[in-house]
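note to self: dont lose this again. the chain is below, predicted strucutre after it. 144 aa total, dont forget to put it in the shared folder this time
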Amino acid sequence: MRVVVREAFRAYINMQPEDFQPGQKIKGDTAVRLLRSGAAVDPDDDAAHELAEQLHGDDQEQEETSGTGGEQNPPPPPPPPPATTPNDGDPSTPPAPSLDAPVKDLLAWVGEDPSRAREVLEAEEAKDSPRSTLVKQLQKIADA
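---
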């Protein structure tokens, strides 16, 4: 996949800042990343055109039907993935992390809450191969 830089910008690629200049041709994974992020690049081959159409097809339809003209705001970020459990409607309560999250993240969410510990413990024990260290720590919290 190839794209051509439309205007100068700086982007972080593999955790390193990289400057891009107008007319510069980018290919491969970097081209995909820049195109997906909405950077100032234009598709330069069929694959890039297809991806751009998939990514921006809905945006173009909205522009055509909105009739507002002028500058358009960038599309809103995608919604976060749904929590694995409801958060009881309390907006101050952070949603539960994915049950495949690292042990430290799950324990941080559970904190000292026995009901959360039981909830995560049940889900972990339902897995084909539950993580024994997580199960032990959750049992201690749930039994408290």
